[in-house]
Amino acid sequence: MSERVAVRKTYKLFIGGKFPRSESGRSYLVQDSNVSLASRKDARDAVLAARAAVKGWAGATAYNRGQILYRVAEMLEGRRDQFVALGASAAEVDAAIDRWVWYAGWSDKLAQVYGGANPVAGPYFNLSAPEPTGVVAVVAPESPALLGLVSVIAPAVVTGNTVVVAASPSAPLAAVTLAEVLATSDLPGGVVNILTGRLSETVPTLAAHMDVNAIDLTGVADADLAAELEVKAAENLKRVLRPAPADNDWYADPGITRMTTLLETKTVWHPKGV
């Protein structure tokens, strides 16, 4: 009797709430699984999906966004053992779940902390309110793969932005498995889009794309590549979050800086007594 050949799993991209293969048809091998190798065309498609989702996601109530992020944490809790089997430590998975919950709690509170009434001389109300920047490109850190990924996605989407994530090419399974979690939660399609493959191929396209409003270079370890991406981002005055230091403690309290950096502030004047 001949020995059976196992069917190797193929992990696809996550774009617009769906799981397409790379338009190039390419893949690469990671832990006995095929992972799609995204092309520049895939990156452009992901930006289109993210832009289409901005209006609905930014227009949702902060309470609703918080509930959806909490639902993601619930789904992640249910697949805890799967992430451990992929190589994440139990402590990392627990920290990633807790971080989703932490950011979910900020969704309807950040405006009170970051916005408010401004004291002005005159018979006017002067109010500042935070609004999402729009489409954010994110380079995920290599390690810790899951916690680092959650730590860059959650602060961007909780405030109403949509994201295109370039997953770490050496540790993509956490990203594509998280995509399966997001697809089975209540998150609208296009809010989070995940690309796997070479950063050198997809990220320059995202940095130069004129419909991307901000770029988070957290996971870029190559200083020359980071500098090149900043120059490309300057073409349409993108907001840029620079790479995280090598000794960054992902388990520490993240604070609110990642959320506030990806916000615009709208100031409104209104006459008193009207």
Structure in words:
This protein has 274 residues and is α/β, with parallel strands linked by helices. The protein has a single domain, classed as Aldehyde Dehydrogenase, Chain A, domain 1 (3-Layer(aba) Sandwich). Helices cover 42% and strands 18% of the residues. The strands form three sheets. Strands 8-7-6-9-10 form a five-stranded parallel sheet, sandwiched between helices. Strands 1-3-2 form a three-stranded mixed sheet. It has a three-stranded antiparallel sheet with strand order 4-5-11. Helix 9 (223-233) links the parallel strand 9 and strand 10 (239-241). The longest helix has 20 residues, at 40-59.
Chain-averaged pLDDT: 93
Profile the largest sheet: 5 strands, parallel
State the oligomer. single chain
Number of domains: 1
Low-confidence stretches: none
Sheet/helix structural class? alpha/beta
* Number of distinct helices: 10
**Helix coverage percent of residues?**
40-55%
Could you spell the SSE succession in H and E letters? Answer: EEEHHHHHEEEHEHEHEHEHE
What structural keywords apply?
274 residues, alpha/beta, Aldehyde Dehydrogenase, Chain A, domain 1, three-stranded mixed sheet, 10 helices
Topology:
Elements (H helix, E strand, L loop, with lengths): L9 E2 L15 E4 L2 E4 L3 H20 L2 H17 L1 H6 L4 H17 L3 H5 L1 E2 L6 E9 L2 E5 L5 H13 L4 E5 L6 H11 L8 E4 L3 H10 L5 E3 L6 H11 L5 E3 L15 H5 L1 E9 L3
Parallel strand pairs: 1-3, 6-7, 6-9, 7-8, 9-10
Antiparallel strand pairs: 2-3, 4-5, 5-11
Helix pairs in contact: 1-8, 2-4, 4-6, 8-9
Short description:
By secondary structure, this protein is an alpha/beta fold.
